[in-house]
Design a protein that fits this description.
single chain; 399 residues; alpha+beta; Pnp Oxidase, Chain A; Thrombin, subunit H; Beta-Lactamase; disordered N terminus
Length: 399
């Protein structure tokens, strides 16, 4: 069986951009080797050709025409060689090549256990963003504390969200779609697009203008473009949206927002916010995006509450390929589960060794789709179990 290669490459311009943006944002150290000396620095700016690195110490000699660069990011050691030019005494421009090499950082010794060790797992929905524990408002802390529980109190989560959105919205509604349910125009738009649908001002919104641009939000203008991109004629799309705006005005709705509830990439419902003419207040894009945070947390709570049931690996023996005290590599023998397993997915796994059971929570951080191999790092593991696996890898324990 083919294993995931130790040495990998980054060739996508988008991925390289994301890596260097994160290095800059998180102030992650980057090392430059010139004249046999390693200098430490940080990414200060991204350019069309490469990166500008600010060095912590001045160069001993003139910089080499080509320098070797290395850094650690996302549990991987990255390195490349590229042309370099000094911009001033502390800044160097480095041209990034088409291919960056990377290797997995090994903090723990691994042991191959294929066809000897199996596991079963439950997929855990993990919020992409979460409210800060330092939040000043009590409702935010209530939401976060409840969602972190194995069996959260949904009424407390909903009550907390309702109190928070009341700062900018008169009416608050949550709806979860039922199977084979007939949806209205707004619901279909949100479900198909997976984006927030925001009527900013029913009197002033027009199909010919975007008003503002935000990737996760459809305004009336962007909804018009979206419907056309999906094959609807301009006339039909225009009629539907103009009729919708007229309906809102007839019902004295001034501003309205549909925020999708997303479960594993599928829209399963929405949070609806609404302000009437007397209140005369817009729901702003930043407020809508904030509600998207709450929607993510609400879905996580509903899954933990067993309101939604995910097809999971609890009924199958999934073989591990190798394991260490810090993570594991498993092979997915049931391809129907792969649509749930993406980078960043959390799983609660029960690992069965011949002489021991171990419970861990792990996060998937690397996927080999061709061979259905999934690399995970442990997020929660008992210290005694971690030490036992460490000893196992060092052959101090029998398997």
């Amino acid at each position: 069986m083919a294993l995931m290669p130790e040495k990998m490459y980054v060739t996508s311009e988008l991925e390289k951009n994301l890596i260097f943006q994160n290095l800059k944002k998180l102030n992650i150290p980057i090392n430059i080797i010139s004249g046999g000396v390693e200098y430490r620095g940080t990414v200060e700016k991204l350019t069309n050709d490469g990166i500008i690195v600010k060095l912590e110490t001045p160069l001993i000699n003139e910089i080499d025409q080509e320098v070797r660069v290395n850094f650690a990011f996302n549990n991987n050691y990255h390195y490349f060689t590229g042309p370099a030019t000094m911009l001033d005494s502390s800044k160097v421009l480095i041209i990034v090549p088409e291919k960056i090499s990377k290797n997995i950082l090994r903090k723990h010794k691994r042991i191959r256990v294929y066809e000897k060790v199996y596991m079963r797992f439950k997929i855990i929905v993990k919020a992409e963003r979460s409210i800060s524990l330092d939040a000043s408002r009590i409702d935010e802390r209530v939401i976060l504390q409840e969602v972190k529980k194995p069996k959260p109190a949904i009424d407390k989560v909903l009550s907390g969200i309702k109190n928070l959105v009341s700062e900018f919205s008169q009416k608050f509604q949550v709806k979860v779609f039922k199977s084979n349910e007939k949806l209205n125009f707004e619901e279909e738009l949100v479900k198909d697009s997976g984006k927030i649908f925001l009527i900013y001002d029913s009197y002033e919104d027009a199909i010919t203008e975007r008003r503002f641009f935000e990737e996760k939000i459809l305004t009336i203008g962007r909804a018009f473009e979206y419907l056309i991109s999906k094959g609807m004629s301009r006339k039909e799309a225009e009629d539907k949206l103009l009729d919708l705006l007229q309906e809102k005005r007839d019902n004295k709705i001034y501003s309205e927002c549909f925020v999708p509830l997303l479960l594993e990439g599928e829209v399963v419902g929405y949070i609806r916010l609404q302000n009437d003419m007397e209140y005369h207040r817009n729901i702003k894009p930043l407020q809508a995006l904030r509600v998207l945070d709450y929607a993510t947390l609400l879905v996580e709570a509903l899954v933990k509450y067993d309101y939604f049931r995910l097809e999971s690996g609890t009924d199958y023996d999934i073989p591990l390929v190798d394991i260490s005290a810090g993570g594991m590599l498993f092979k997915l023998t049931k391809p129907q589960l792969k649509r749930y397993l993406t980078v960043g997915t959390f799983i609660q796994a029960s690992i069965k060794f011949p002489s021991r059971y171990i419970e861990v929570m792990a996060e998937i951080f690397r996927i080999d789709q061709a061979n259905l191999l999934y690399g995970c790092k442990f997020k929660e593991i008992n210290e005694e179990d971690m030490n036992w696996i460490e000893d196992l890898a060092k052959k101090k324990n029998p398997l």
